[in-house]
Amino acid sequence: MPRRLNLFGPIKNLFKSIRSGFDRKNAQPLPDEDSAKKFGTEGEWQTYEDIQKFLPGGEFKRNVLSFENGSVFKETDLVILYEKRLYVVEIKNWRGRLVQKGKSYFKVKKGVLVKVKDPFAQVQRSIAILKKQYHISTWVTPIVLLLGADAKRVKPPRHCHLFTDIPSFVIFVRHNIIPPALNNAEIAAFRHLRSSDTIWADGTQEDSSRISGKILNESLELLWNHTAHAVPVAKLRSLERLGSDFTTDSIIVTYRDGQRQSCYSVGLQKIEIVDAVNNHTSIAINKIRAIRFGD
Q1: What confidence tens digit (pLDDT) does each residue in 8-52 have?
Q2: Domain range for residue 97?
Q3: What residues pair up with 283 in beta bridges, in sequence order?
Q4: Which of residues 157, 191, 225 is at a domain's end?
């Protein structure tokens, strides 16, 4: 009696390999699901780097600022251009179980339902604002990434996509060929999106804080070779303090063209920044540990 061909085994192994971290198209390793657990105050940058690493060829804008009448109107977590298709991603670090009741959403904390903001409404609002401001008419895919959440009881609205780990999210983006591609004008508009600036500043000796928004200073006074220079903020990628005082300790400056140099701050400068809810903050430069300027 001839042996029957077993097709179930290879198919089962294929999906097992995908779950274990390999892309079905080119067998590239995907980020470990544990990387999703890094997201938060300390691991947020690493999570974005994971997404960038495993979507080669993509372009990324994080913490995108939208403006209305010159004021910050909305901050969008992540916007991705991948193979000429646009994705807007709302990211939440929600541990535990998420429950949906009608159009309302609740986190379960110690057996108690705690209402949270509707993440799908947030991502759809972000898309509406960005499309209006940057004149994009082509379809933009809305994604909610609830890292580490148990969202089995949540049904996303039509056309919205929900993921709770980075590997599933990456696989979806890599193989999503349904939306039409952006035209050249829309791609150019994406590249003009403004990512937020981020300042890490000292609070007390035990505490530190991070502020994201738009830095209002047009230039910073920096000293090297015994000469003060007014350096346009538009040319800067990051500043990092090497000691405990930005006004007396050396600073490592990274420019947008990749060059780096060591210098000092001139005088008691203040950095002015406005956040996503239009709070204006003035921070003495000697209190700042690092600055990362947006794209």
Answers
A1: 444 444 444 444 444 444 444 544 444 433 434 344 556 777 888
A2: 8-191
A3: 271
A4: 191
